């Protein structure tokens, strides 16, 4: 059953492999955060993942459905996550929440300096910086879940394999293995992320803002290929 959850797990934590994802988050002054997630699969990608499930012992592909409860269980041990709750709207759509106890510990390894995520908050304001790049992405995916890494490797995503490809080369590869329809769904997919921070925003990189709310519109292909690092930063008063 857990093999059926992998695609949406990635969507929950940044939308790396869902064809439709909306993530709304609140970052609190003490460094905790809550993410509210809506994620679903487009038909052709759902069929591909169903075929994976069948080959890996996940059951009859005709019965394929994303399992919200299983998604939550599979993410409970990821560093920095204190609670996860998901439920199904339909067989291909999941909604739920993720509570992060400390943003600065999310997907962290003790004693290892990381470039992925940095957070600070002081009397003069705060800063949240995220950098997702090819040389660190495979390790981050393993921290999230070995199954996640396995599934993205099956989809040949450089974010999991570490292979250097352009976006065009990756889409050509996907089309040659899974067909033009799957490649088109990946090419057109986007992740909408909004985040409310503790104070009025004074500067943002990679998005737009109004008051305390930051908005990011992330093409899925950019996150899968990482031919250019994804860099997002918010500063607030």
Automatic annotation (TrEMBL):
Q: Where is the signal peptide?
A: 1-23
Keywords in UniProt for this one? Answer: Signal
Highest taxon listed in the record's lineage:
Bacteria
Q: What is this protein called?
A: DUF4292 domain-containing protein
Query: Which species?
Result: Breznakiella homolactica
Give the organism's phylogenetic lineage. Answer: Bacteria, Pseudomonadati, Spirochaetota, Spirochaetia, Spirochaetales
